Amino acid sequence: MYTQGLNQAVEDGGPEDAELLARFQAKIDREEKIEPNDWMPEAYRQTLIRQISQHAHSEIVGMLPEGNWLTRAPSLRRKAILLAKVQDEGGHGLYLYAAAETLGISRAEMVDRLLEGRARYSSIFNYPTITWADIGAVGWLVDGAAIMNQIPLCRCSYGPYARAMIRICKEESFHQRQGYEAMSRLAEGTAAQKRMAQDALDRWWWPSLMMFGPSDADSPHTGRSMRWKIKRFTNDELRQKFVDATVPQARLIGLEPPDPELRHDEESGHWRFGKIDWTEFNEVLAGNGPCNRERMAARRKAHAEGAWVREAATAHAGKKRSRMAMAAAAE
Ligand code: BYC
After folding, report:
1. Nearest CA to ligand 1 atom 5
2. Which of 143, 169, 233, 296 would you call most buried, defined as having the most Cβ atoms within 10 angstroms of its Cβ?
3. Which atom of ligand 1 is nearest to the CA of 210?
């Protein structure tokens, strides 16, 4: 899927023809998809590379907190579900790397940017999973927040990203349900199990709200991404939708989000919530969250240990190419 063509590419920082730009925007306004070989402004390309690669890295790094519990799942059924989920996340990462490659960047370059700290992954994966209930909370809240953010991405203006998101969202929906089901079982279990579920909700609630990104007033990219229909809703709009959907789910199973200011606003129909601690979010983004260093160390180790696989695959592809060339020459 690595598109080399990229017809009519504009040089970095080069002047972009006003008429091309107007035609590009008109196409987006008509809800037509932009495809890899279509002309696009360099900033649109770079925005997508940034967002899609960050999304792919999040899926891959996101395997770590859950992978931590694969050997300790409390039953065979829970282990099978968790294994399937973690494998799905790996698959999502691969579709997303492939979608980003259509913009003219290689997977190797994207991975280098992550490992060198030049690319981000979602803040949420810098928190530890310390009890089994955390696995339920990750499925319910983290995948729940992910779906809220990702359903609109199925209508993103860039074709390969939008198409990748359709399958990803189907899988995320199973992930959210299995997490909520695991939390419900704990919440209706013994007093200690219910406490464990509430404790997980207490620790994952605010970081899940932060997943949607900074408030709209502090989000430098939202305006342009909305104009280009990469984003269909702002960070605050999606965060509100998530809170509105999740508070009743928590109460249904006898749990309470850790927010004394949470109240239902009858007039608007929304759940109003307290202030998010943006200092914590910024610290996590700066690399100082509880698990940032551990996560990056795990990715670097896995990358180094996988070097022989990449070398073998490259050598195999080279051999195959030369055999095909020899066969073609002999015809
Ligand atoms: N974490 O102007 P803004 C999953 C950065 S994985 C870290 O609002 P934008 C799963 C942002 O990059 C799901 N950084 O940006 C996997 C920007 O920094 P730079 C992951 C964040 O792009 C395994 C700056 O803050 N989902 O579901 O318009 C197991 C300003 O932000 C975060 C995606 O990646 C954050 N939370 O909006 C379980 C969805 N938020 O680049 C589950 C795709 C913001 O200027 N991405 N930043 O240095 C998006 O929808 C958008 O990129 C965001 C941010 C809403 C996240």
Report:
1. 213
2. 143
3. 36
